[in-house]
Amino acid sequence: MTLHNPGFVGGDEPWDNSSLDLERRYRLGSEVTSLSLSRSSSSEKSDPLENLNINFRLTSSMSMLNVFCFQLFFSMYPDRDNPWRMLAVSPTDSFSMNLTDFRDNALLKLQLGGPFTRGAVDLASQEYLLVQVEQSEQPGQRRRRTQQVIHNWTIPVHGERSDQMLVTKTFEIDPIVITIQAFLRDDEVVPLSMTHQSLYVTVETQVAIAGVILAGVYVLIIFEIVHRTLAALLGSFAALAALAIIGDRPSLVTVVEWIDYETLALLFGMMVLVAIFSDTGFFDYCAVKAYQLSRGRVWPMIIILCLIAAILSAFLDNVTTMMLFTPVTIRLCEVLNLDPRHVLIAEVIFTNIGGAATAVGDPPNVIIVSNQDLHKEGIDFASFTGYMFLGIILVLLTSFPFLRMLYWNKKLYNKESIEIVELKHEILVWKQTAQRINPASREETAVKCLLMQKVLNLENLLRKMMKTFQRSEENPPDPPFIKIIFFRPPQHRITDKVLLVKCVSVLGVVIFMFFLNSFVPSIHLELGWIAILGSLWLLVLADIQDFEIILHRVEWATLLFFAGLFVLMEALAQLQLIDYIGEQTALLIKAVPEDQRLAIAIILVMWVSALASSLIDNIPFTATMIPVLINLSQDADVNLPIKPLIYALAMGACLGGNGTLIGASANVVCAGIAEQHGYGFSFMEFFRLGFPMMIMTCMIAMCYLLATHIGLGWNM
């Protein structure tokens, strides 16, 4: 089929020339429209911001130079090729190995795999391995003879020899002998695997490099120099280049293993479910019903949405909650002529707060209640949920008034009329549709040109409407507390009831399986598998013929961002950043006088966890801090109970996700879906609202922790 429109194609003019001319007209029209709209709507913006944007364009060449340098460094060093040595030790048979290839190296990185457990070692009653690294210090001005220095590393052994675990320790010495001895109750043999690696720089240098890389990623995201997905990929590549420089370059297989595929599978499966669900008209129907329920009152509606999101996220994954809530919220705001960005940011903040209330609401809580050493200390599902639930209730009660105070001077409704807002959104949708068409054939080129002509016509209409709107009177300001919008919303109905029944059935089963996965340990299906299987079932039941339409609605940029973020966080962990934060926190706690140590420890763990979780992923940080806090509580010189420290860690790790846009997975997912609908919000827009909320909620949580553990003595 050949498309022909004599309105914009000449008689004998070649089609290619006409399409190129139309593309030039389209770009010119878009530039003119953006300039005219910016002049009319951005009179509040100052010239320094425009100069800043020009400077950001100039930094693109610097970014290319940095990428070239990273690639050069990465290609100069080979992958680490350290074969694993298989060995076995027993109480009567130890292992010893001489090292002769560690000249001019700063560190020894030793890795052992075996039936180990976490936590401190009780030398009197527990089985353990003793790893001794012997160093020979050469004679100097103060010593006339060579002195032998031995560094001990004690590793607890699992009683049933069942759990295989990989442990790593770095020694800042020039070793010559490694000895492994087993201290067991019987003469059993413990099988082990061991490898060692020489590193060229010290731990402090590695931490400094990791801090510079993390700061660079945040600069790229905060100032929007590049898209956040590209920023995460550049940061991960820079961290890999740094590992290559220090002599610890991982292989491609290792880097791929760093990616958390369960999270990616959960995101992908839920994206497919929501994409099919949106074809039923259910989101539009819910938006109109929510409007009728709130009777057009904005703030009661926002409070209801935030409260429901917080309650659901206490039992569901935060990502799942936001993937279901974001489309409904966007349609509701379009009906009420509100700016969806402010409402979405409020919702995702309360989603993160509600997720901290239970043991299954947020990944850090799941990691804590799954730790067997903490089970022995009395931190189980019931006690953890009861304590956290009470604290989060107090946080929620104070968060709603504070949110209203933050939004006091913000214009929640759009400045333009609803006709102009809908026309702008329609232009954006047509532009995105035209950009997604690949003009591989004559027919596809014709369709793309028709869409671009449609965009030009709509932009001309928008300019006329903007001129008319500017001549009219300005909108009245918001009333001090409640704004009531009087207009009749459109009567949205369910468009496909059969598909709705199928979607509700599958989604209900998926959510039910999420609950069972949290409470029934005999079900061996993770959240990612449940989401993937649910999407497959719905694809079969819905009889989707054009699968590419569904794939177009998947947020591939968000999935790629998480993949890059996982690699970045693991690479920073390999650069000792997370371990360094935990060790420095423990040293600060030990330096405090004993009568004030518990209060200072709660405050320090709380705020370090909150600030670190707003900058880095809270999952590896929580997993790293748990053994640090366990060892700290079992230290006889420190004498601290474990429960206050763990609860402070959980509060800080969960509430700290509200600090920045990439502080929690739900934040990124919500921003990606909003961007797909044409309402994306930047890092700074989220930071202006999320960071004050994080400070306030952490203050309330800190007061709750101090009141219960210092005032009431709930430490047992």
Write structural notes for this entry.
This protein is of the alpha+beta class. It is 61% helix and 9% strand. It is built from 25 helices and 8 strands. The protein has helices at 15-41, 47-76, 203-222, 228-245, 252-257, 261-277, 282-294, 298-313, 318-336, 340-355, 363-369, 372-376, 381-406, 418-436, 442-471, 497-519, 527-542, 547-552, 556-574, 577-590, 597-615, 618-634, 642-655, 665-676, 683-711; strands at 85-89, 95-98, 107-114, 128-137, 147-156, 165-171, 175-183, 190-199. The strands form 2 sheets. The protein has a 4-stranded antiparallel β-sheet with strand order 1-8-3-6, with no helix packed on it. Strands 2-7-4-5 form a 4-stranded antiparallel β-sheet, with no helix packed on it. α8 (298-313) packs antiparallel against α9. The longest helix is centred in the N-terminal third of the chain and has 30 residues, at 47-76. It is globular and about 90 Å long. Residues 1-19, 25-54 and 477-488 have low confidence and may be disordered. Its main location: membrane. It is a multi-pass membrane protein. Keywords: Membrane, Transmembrane, Transmembrane helix, Transport. This is OCA2 melanosomal transmembrane protein.
Give the topology, please.
Blueprint: H1 15-41, H2 47-76, E1 85-89, E2 95-98, E3 107-114, E4 128-137, E5 147-156, E6 165-171, E7 175-183, E8 190-199, H3 203-222, H4 228-245, H5 252-257, H6 261-277, H7 282-294, H8 298-313, H9 318-336, H10 340-355, H11 363-369, H12 372-376, H13 381-406, H14 418-436, H15 442-471, H16 497-519, H17 527-542, H18 547-552, H19 556-574, H20 577-590, H21 597-615, H22 618-634, H23 642-655, H24 665-676, H25 683-711
Antiparallel strand pairs: 1-8, 2-7, 3-6, 3-8, 4-5, 4-7
